[in-house]
Each structure stands twice: as C-alpha cells, then as structure tokens.
Amino acid sequence: EDREVTPEELKEFFGANKYREKWEKGLSELTEKQVDRSAIKNFWQNAIAAGRLPEGRYTCPIILNRFGLVRDGHLTNAGEALFGNNHPISLKVGIFATDEKLTILDMKLFEDNIFNLMRLAEEYILQHIRWRVEIVSWERDEIPEVPVAVVREILANSFAHAIYGGRTPHEICIHPGKITFYSPGEYASKYKPEEYIKKDLESEIRNPAISKILFLNHSIEKFGSGFKRIDSLCKDASVKYSYENGQNGFKFIIKRNPITSDTADVTSDVTTDVTSADELNLTEKTILAILKSKPDASRDELAEKASKTVRTVQRTLNSLRDKGYIEREGAKQNTVWKIKK
Predict the structure, then answer these.
(1) What contacts 339, CB < 8 A, 6 or more positions away?
(2) Which of 9, 64, 119, 302 has the least C-beta neighbours within 10 A?
(3) What does the alpha-carbon distance between residue 92 and residue 332 come to, in Å, rounded to a whole number?
(4) Euclidean distance between CA atoms 226 and 189, whole angstroms
C-alpha cells in the first residue's frame, strides 16, 4: 500500500512484531545439550496426558527439534527460556506487612527456566495465602481464597506474553489486601482485557513458541481465553481483580477478602440450591452436559472445564442429584455419574 506509515504503526511493528519474530528465533549461547531434561520430560508427559500431544516415544532432542527450539547445535532464546539449565529467567516473590512495599516479611529470588518457575511460583503463592475448611455433603474441603485455576492462568499468561531480556524481572507480591503479578513488557494486545471478556477475539501472541509449549502443557486452556476464564472463575469465587498497564510491564492485581469458615452458611447455601425450581440454571446445565460426555469426570476436571470452583461444582452435583438428573455409582475414589434424565 502506497501511503505514509504512522508513528503508531511503526511502534506497533517494531515493538511487537519485530520482537516476536526476532527474539524467540534468535540463538542463545547454550548448546542443545544444556537443557533441563526432567523439565522437558515432564512437559511431554503433561502434554500427552492432556491429549494435546500424541502418544509416542519422545526424547529431549525430538521435542526441541519438533518445536523449533534448537538450531545449529544451539538452543533458541525461546528454548533457553523454556528449558535451559542455566537459570535464564528471574522471578522475585515477597510477602509484605502492608499494602505498600515497606515492611518485608519474606523475600526470595528464584532463577530458573519458565517451566520450573511456574511450579515454584504456584507453590509459593498457595503456601502463603489463606485457606478455609468447609464441610459439604459430609466431605471436608480445603478452599483457597483465590482459586488455584486463577493462579495458574495468570502465571501462564504472565510468562507467555512477557518481554524477555528487559530491565525488570517477573515479580509476585503478597500483601494483606492484595496479590500482584508483574510481567515485564507492555500489554501485548491492542484489545483491552475487558474486550476479551465480553467478546470472542483472536489472541495476539507476543511469544508464539513459548505460548505453544504452555498450551500443549495444559498451562494455557486456549489462546485468547485467559481473561474470560479468569473473570469467570473470579466471579464464581467472589474475588475482585484489576490490572495496571505501564511502560515497563503489566500488573494483574487480585484483591484479597477476609476468609471465614461458617458451616451454617454452607448448609443454608446447599439447601437453597437443592430446593430451587426444577428448571436448571446455567451452571447445572453446563455440568450436566460435561457429565453426559464424560460420566467419570472428577470434581477438579468439572471445575476446569466449566471454569468454576470445586466448591461450586460439588454444590451443583448435589443439586443435580437431588433433582433427579444424576445418580452416583461406584466408590468415592472411582465415582461415575449415571445420567437419569
């Protein structure tokens, strides 16, 4: 097209497309043998279990070559970031006494590859947030204040869309009133997060090689659905969130609410669900549809597929059972749901 290119278009091209094409495919200083073999093995096992990689005999060289993470005997930058054994990526995690970065109660610096950092970050967060215990249908449930699926989705998108080699590291801060997830690099899309929530938009991927590995690993559910999934899970758990987009990075903020365990309230909630009208609500219809295609789905599987919390899934199962739509068969650890109508 014969026209003058605007400064905004130049910024978008050189700030996004050029970075995307150049950085991931560039060669690192690491040879193809300088890899974390256990991380690569865990990756292909997860990908096979998720049905996103066909069963077969895999080796580290096969995986690296198959996904373009090695060239001329060296790992690409994407390969090094994902599976390098030289601790290529930095992540700061900390706990603070107030909602400002003043009094530090704990501070750690993790240096590792993306695959391992996601696990370390999740473990750190789940160890330092509040949990409550609830009894539903005589079963003891331990429920985190922030759904685990939300933590995983935010972490995966943080590493998938970051700009690497910049001036700031990834950072997670746990305050009394909030948890913040900081990812280096400006927000990667021209669409706002709320647009992804309201519409079905195609994802704009900053790091396609990294994003593909995280998708196959089942860390990302599907491209372009991260904000929609986070929004659904947060609403379901009554968790509020916000975000800040700065010049150096993108920050996702989860608001923490006081957690109390009240068995009476839980019983009341369950009773309300059970005695409601026979017409199924949207959550009940969703869970029933999933069970029709996979009667042996676990509560965790149902929660993931429906973008709901495990607690909500259990209450929905109780409701569907008491309304006569499903019937439980088999032992507790091997439950199969028989569809009755």
Answers:
(1) 288, 291, 292, 295, 325, 326
(2) 9
(3) 41
(4) 13
